[in-house]
Amino acid sequence: MHLRNRDNIEIVDAFIRLFGSLLEEIAPHYTGVIEFRLLKNEDNEYHDIMGRVGNTVYFSPSEVYGIGLTDVEILASLAHEVGHIVYNTRSWEPDCEQRADMLAAEIGLGAQMISALEKILDSRRFHRLTSMLIGRIHFLQNMMRS
User: Fold this and answer.
1) What pLDDT is attached to residue 32?
2) Distance (Å, rounded) from C-alpha 2 to C-alpha 30?
3) Other residues' Cβ atoms within 10 Å of the Cβ of residue 70
4) Residues 6+ apart with CB under 8 A from 3
């Protein structure tokens, strides 16, 4: 796995430095390149926080900081997006989202993923996703208990 910070995003540099080697250990099957890019406001008509297309993770600083995510919650969210890539999950189905969430938990950011999801839920920006977000929170809480 090769992690490439195409737009020199400071928090992505920290993510790669802190978790790059661990991600390679957890997902040795993934040998491709994962790129991180800025999602500019003018290109973000749906006000996405972050997301992925193919092997690229897009990050919107204004949206991420606008809902109040801390740096460690951002790291967990980045791990979630990487999880979609390394586990090849391509839909919003609960099992795909949970599998991606598991990567954050596997690198030690489960509690931070939960708090990020809670902030996303509290922002009420994605009201159609409320039940899925709650399900993801419960999934992670149960996973961390066992």
Assistant:
1) 96
2) 9
3) 14
4) 15, 16, 20, 23, 33, 34, 36
